[in-house]
């Protein structure tokens, strides 16, 4: 049975092979024995249409049948073979066709063998090319860009107490990078910086005095606005001050209404409390304002004290208010007005580790240049109101966070902020390019028009000359 099948198969191949063009190196005698290999050879090198022909030809179908019958034990293997087992069917140019054993190689039918001789799927080929080191023609995998590493920063140091080795004097060395931090915040506080237009810029205590009032009354306004401001937002404080300036009853008939010492002394505590009810701790503040007014009348001749000691002797006035009041009302800066914003933010930056605003004030005063003592309060209060908020800090909009200058920056927000800035910069660049292009086009259009006018003028002159000659 087997012999008969092989014989028939050889005859079929020989028959088919004789119909094809001759191939160098193949004698006619080899056709009966190596007919299949011959066909493969033809398909690969001389007869591109052979595969399709084989698939549809009667010979192919018959051959497949014969093979199945002839090699029944081998065909018992599952038709759905593994890739590895099927790879045996693939044609190899290095393999000598003369030594290939057909019966041992082909386990199913010829059509399957031809089909698997085609290149494997693209995905597999790509995977192989990336792992193979011997395939010179395979494209090398893309090399990832080198990681951009930031230069290692010098470790941040807080303000530190040191001793001069020559003189033996102790001094406080400022925190590292304090100046660049300070200047960056200053830049952010100026338009169009992210921290410009803070509430303190227009409604800070220093700005709530009525400029039309007498200097003494203006100073009194500054003191009262500072007393109202603790634990209160600038916006709320401004409203309360406006009510006092416009609604506080006159102390006697014919006297002006509004905020002045006489009216405060004369007003009922209940009325005063009602006018300032929106501010925090208004009951206590009402009491302190009334008491402070009496001290001013009795001890300071109706004016506010011009010393820190005098100011802090007033009920409800602490060092922060005193230093700010002295600066704003008398124009003398003898210390830093440290409020919650200044205390919180300077600790966030790692300038010091202090427990309360008073400790912060002393720490700052130990090294901060004196010309910055007044400015720093305004700077950091506005910064704390707009960017470095007590809750929900905007590190993505903060130049300190984006510039790697703040150790407390929220990394996620900073990364998002950097992306946004890059995109905005790209948009701006496009807009600028577009505008430049527009200007160029406009210029060219005008030049063309001028040229046309010139040509028309020339033509007119030529025509006129001709007419004149005639
Ligand atoms: S980076 Fe964040 S935490 Fe640091 S100063 Fe800016 S807003 Fe405040």
From TrEMBL:
<dbReference type="InterPro" id="IPR000445">
    <property type="entry name" value="HhH_motif"/>
</dbReference>
<keyword id="KW-0234">DNA repair</keyword>
<dbReference type="InterPro" id="IPR030841">
    <property type="entry name" value="NTH1"/>
</dbReference>
<dbReference type="GO" id="GO:0006285">
    <property type="term" value="P:base-excision repair, AP site formation"/>
</dbReference>
<dbReference type="GO" id="GO:0000703">
    <property type="term" value="F:oxidized pyrimidine nucleobase lesion DNA N-glycosylase activity"/>
</dbReference>
<feature type="compositionally biased region" description="Basic residues">
    <location>
        <begin position="150"/>
        <end position="160"/>
    </location>
</feature>
<feature type="region of interest" description="Disordered">
    <location>
        <begin position="72"/>
        <end position="174"/>
    </location>
</feature>
<comment type="similarity">
    <text>Belongs to the Nth/MutY family.</text>
</comment>
<keyword id="KW-0378">Hydrolase</keyword>
<keyword id="KW-0496">Mitochondrion</keyword>
<dbReference type="GO" id="GO:0003677">
    <property type="term" value="F:DNA binding"/>
</dbReference>
<protein>
    <recommendedName>
        <fullName>Endonuclease III homolog</fullName>
        <ecNumber>3.2.2.-</ecNumber>
        <ecNumber>4.2.99.18</ecNumber>
    </recommendedName>
</protein>
<feature type="domain" description="HhH-GPD">
    <location>
        <begin position="228"/>
        <end position="386"/>
    </location>
</feature>
<dbReference type="InterPro" id="IPR003265">
    <property type="entry name" value="HhH-GPD_domain"/>
</dbReference>
<feature type="compositionally biased region" description="Low complexity">
    <location>
        <begin position="99"/>
        <end position="117"/>
    </location>
</feature>
<feature type="compositionally biased region" description="Low complexity">
    <location>
        <begin position="127"/>
        <end position="138"/>
    </location>
</feature>
<dbReference type="GO" id="GO:0005739">
    <property type="term" value="C:mitochondrion"/>
</dbReference>
<dbReference type="InterPro" id="IPR004036">
    <property type="entry name" value="Endonuclease-III-like_CS2"/>
</dbReference>
<dbReference type="GO" id="GO:0006289">
    <property type="term" value="P:nucleotide-excision repair"/>
</dbReference>
<keyword id="KW-0326">Glycosidase</keyword>
<dbReference type="InterPro" id="IPR011257">
    <property type="entry name" value="DNA_glycosylase"/>
</dbReference>
<dbReference type="Pfam" id="PF00633">
    <property type="entry name" value="HHH"/>
</dbReference>
<dbReference type="GO" id="GO:0005634">
    <property type="term" value="C:nucleus"/>
</dbReference>
<dbReference type="Pfam" id="PF00730">
    <property type="entry name" value="HhH-GPD"/>
</dbReference>
<comment type="function">
    <text>Bifunctional DNA N-glycosylase with associated apurinic/apyrimidinic (AP) lyase function that catalyzes the first step in base excision repair (BER), the primary repair pathway for the repair of oxidative DNA damage. The DNA N-glycosylase activity releases the damaged DNA base from DNA by cleaving the N-glycosidic bond, leaving an AP site. The AP lyase activity cleaves the phosphodiester bond 3' to the AP site by a beta-elimination. Primarily recognizes and repairs oxidative base damage of pyrimidines.</text>
</comment>
<dbReference type="InterPro" id="IPR023170">
    <property type="entry name" value="HhH_base_excis_C"/>
</dbReference>
<keyword id="KW-0456">Lyase</keyword>
<keyword id="KW-0227">DNA damage</keyword>
<dbReference type="GO" id="GO:0140078">
    <property type="term" value="F:class I DNA-(apurinic or apyrimidinic site) endonuclease activity"/>
</dbReference>
<keyword id="KW-0539">Nucleus</keyword>
